[in-house]
Amino acid sequence: MRFTLRWLTWVCLSLMLWTAVAESTHNHPNKTEAISCSICVMAHSTAPVIGTHHVKPVFEAVGLLHEEELLAKAPISVFELGIRGPPAV
Question: Is the pTM of this model over 0.90?
Answer without folding.
Answer: no
